[in-house]
Here is the input.
Amino acid sequence: MSIKIGIFGYGNLGRGVEQAVRKNKDTELVAVFSRRDPSTVKIATPDVEVVSADKVTDYKDKIDVLVICGGSATDLPEMTPALVKDFNVIDSFDTHANIPTHFSNVDKAAKESGKIGVISVGWDPGMFSLARLYSNCILTEGSDYTFWGKGVSQGHSDAVRRIEGVVDARQYTVPVPEALEAVRSGKNPELTTRQKHTRVCYVVAAEGADKAKIENEIKTMPNYFADYDTTVNFITAEEMKRDHSGLPHGGVVIRSGKTGADNEHNHVIEYSLKLDSNPEFTASVLIAFARAAYRLNNEGQSGCKTVFDIAPAYLCAQSHDEIIAHML
Amino acid sequence: MSIKIGIFGYGNLGRGVEQAVRKNKDTELVAVFSRRDPSTVKIATPDVEVVSADKVTDYKDKIDVLVICGGSATDLPEMTPALVKDFNVIDSFDTHANIPTHFSNVDKAAKESGKIGVISVGWDPGMFSLARLYSNCILTEGSDYTFWGKGVSQGHSDAVRRIEGVVDARQYTVPVPEALEAVRSGKNPELTTRQKHTRVCYVVAAEGADKAKIENEIKTMPNYFADYDTTVNFITAEEMKRDHSGLPHGGVVIRSGKTGADNEHNHVIEYSLKLDSNPEFTASVLIAFARAAYRLNNEGQSGCKTVFDIAPAYLCAQSHDEIIAHML
Here is the structure.
């Protein structure tokens, strides 16, 4: 019997989850829920219903795990605690500073309903968090480094698009190779924001727009660009479509630490990702943890869980005997 | 109250565990057990007893977790099931093919005694196993690659030392850079044993020994060297001591896999280790999982566990609130 999956929200991430279900033979897509008019939403899987989001509770006995594909700013803080009243749920909430509050809201609702709510699953937070946690537990004295990219930051791209005279924009976050090399070599450098990453923007400007003004507005934008060395390239709409329509991303988590009586030995633990599609990879992580949510709830567990709270074996379609024999 | 640790076996790994206890403020070393005459064993921690191994059961109420630092060939298959009758234990059993049998022996004894036995902890098996498992659960279609080195292989060094005319030897396993690059780029190559690693030996020969014969015996040794390109360097005993007295190691686990409707997106997940001291790093992993063994047993759990069966939060000295706030 397969695990019945519902997708709540059908943007880039929801489409990625739909593909991930197809790659996991023990899961099956039951329905896609959208806030748009369902008749206007075309999905990739034949014979699966698209349902209006406000009808989701009608499906409470038909779905084992609901994968919530909403935004972290306003959607998930409302949706996840609300939907965990009727479903095992999983989300990719990624506003790091607000995770404790989100955890506590979801935990309360999930314990009341007897369901499991897994939050903040993806690659950061998610796999990068696991890399940080395992390596900190092993090397208790050391330094942590996270580099992002090369990849498209959707938040920064959106910020550039809001500037007057900008028709379209894509922002790449790029790690500084020399900084990465210094960390990998075990030198444990202290690095400023500017020393770790550069930002590269590709911008389609409106006809007659003041490009110098746009470039200056980007480079001086507080929080987003002011603390970085930023390069701005103006391109045509055709070039944007041809060269920048993908959503690649990735990054590196490194911990460098010491052992030995006189701290004479250095060790470097590195976890790195090179992703052609950020949403499809995130979706693949979500489906593995959706399997865990289903199993944990079947065992009678409830409440909020994170990637830290789930034994890795729960993520695997294979049996315990198989993973002990072939992966350990 | 700190977690009371015993070390059973005081070789390179046992000395590493002793150092790791000093780096983990919530743990405390209670006793070192040795099969040698205790009066001949000098340890690095003042005021800690060295006790004869056959007296270990006298300490059953004084130790929370016993870290068994024996060899996988003959020690651990006997020691771990025997010692788990009286102690929560942890070992670094690394004969991959025999893990299912070892698991089942330890599980039976541990369930009878109500203790926890964590087996096969270290970096391979251990952290590399976790890297393989997580990445296989995420990228269900793909290829796995493990490269070891550059580092000292003690088994291969011992094999060279057994050759007539060899006084001392050190063998380094070295990944082939071109193979590593092809895998990292997402090309998913099929690689033979010879294409993945080379072996480099440093040998101190006895005076008057036939070096050509030694070199030929090394290069043609079945299982150990015959399937590899091997380089043999003859050096003096002084050079051996000066340049090759460390035990560095490391390696890389990579999974490269596809997502998307037409498998149009490739993703590369890489976990890599660069270790100045193989035994001290392994010991640091052991202590983190010893903490987990203690906590699991305090919750009333018993039986055999592997790195796959333990939620990551159990490894951390910090509270759940702290790790949610700072590491997720």
